[in-house]
Amino acid sequence: MQRRAVSAVLAAAALLLTAGCSSGDGGPPGEDGSATATPTGTAAGSSSPEGSPEETPPAKGSVKVARTVATGLSTPWGLAPLADGDLLVSSRDEATITRVDGRTGEKTELGEVPGVSPSGEGGLLGIALSPEYASDHMVYAYFTSASDNRIVRMIYDEGKPAGEQLGAPDTVFRGIPKGMIHNGGRIAFGPDRMLYAGTGESGDTGLSQDKESLGGKILRLTPDGEPAPGNPFPDSPVYSYGHRNVQGLAWDGKQRLFASEFGQDTWDELNAIKPGDNYGWPEAEGESDDGGFHNPVDQWTTDEASPSGIAYAEGSIWMAGLGGDRLWRIPLKGTEASADPQAFLEEEYGRLRTVAPAGKNKLWLVTSNTDGRGDPKEDDDRILELEVS
Hints:
Elements: E1 63-70, E2 76-81, E3 87-91, E4 96-100, E5 107-112, E6 124-129, H1 133-136, E7 138-144, E8 149-155, E9 170-176, E10 187-189, E11 195-198, E12 217-221, E13 238-241, E14 246-251, E15 257-261, E16 267-272, E17 298-301, E18 307-313, E19 316-321, E20 327-333, E21 336-337, E22 342-344, E23 352-357, E24 362-367, E25 383-388
Antiparallel strand pairs: 1-25, 2-3, 3-4, 4-5, 6-7, 7-8, 8-9, 10-11, 11-12, 12-13, 14-15, 15-16, 16-17, 18-19, 19-20, 20-21, 20-22, 23-24, 24-25
């Protein structure tokens, strides 16, 4: 779809706390929303190297559940794969981070994140590993406190006893509006080594169009919580606006950012994110004839999707559906859908919260049936390993 830039001047201020780890040196994003810096590793949500040929994937794909990795998880939300194949998973309501052995499914609790105030849709949400994790062992987390949503980082010390392996949290960014609903929560480091965060408007629809508010936005930050170099609005962390509740972030093989977004009563969305663009909420839900709004790549009725996490693999975006109880495949050509979306696993595993690349043609998939809105079965919640094409 055609994308239209919206010009604006921003004088945004966010209350930032910084600490002494390197802020990275990622360059500003390109005009198509991609990063111009050369990545030193694979981006979160990406499985194809920069510079690889861009091919249109087949119109029809496939999904096979290779195995159940782990069961018995309580309100799982965020997922961060480790280099050795193990997984870190956050519990929204228990405010804990647990390490799951990627082979045996054995669970080891790292510890509880202090300061989390779970209520409604808030709690301990997304987690991500530092771009320098091999040397700094830093885990980032997005959570709801008593006053706001914020991002912290903690050292993960494997040498300490289980339950005591998380260091004291260092708050790198705060002041994101909180509510009983629409707290956003997904965080991920991009190919440019900058930290991206999807936020919600906390039920106050006016925040989404207010470029001085952090609600209803995608934010782009340095690892220290500063507005990232090259952001579209001067001295602001805001990367895009006019969102309702962003809970999915992923980059394709050309380093283009995509995001999933909850609609209200009519249309959920998958969006291709261009820096500085306005995605319409609350004036537009789904496609719009207003040339000032960036239209979605695709849209779904809310009972088919209610999307949370997304990942990129095999030329497609894979989108986990909560209310829809299914996994969507959206094949891409550039930043447009190249064929109709396909639904998989419909009503087989209940609510689906998070999907993440697992290497090659594989994905991790996390269910969300113990979050108060699902119908949990005996083994819920669980992590699945999928083979996709």
